Hints:
Elements: E1 4-7, H1 12-22, E2 28-31, H2 33-39, H3 42-50
Parallel strand pairs: 1-2
Amino acid sequence: MRLQVAMDLLNTGAALRLAGQVAPYVDVIELGTPLIESESMSVIVNSRRDSPSTPPPTWSPC
């Protein structure tokens, strides 16, 4: 079983802080739609910059 957390916060700073706090305990950190709509692609760029050792994102249809 894999544990996933969705980050539906509305700003990059809060999302990155939360990601740092939960990373040791979860398998997948998802940038949720509300976060991406609020912050645009910058949240994706910043999350990749702050977590360079993570594998590239994959597309997972619902």
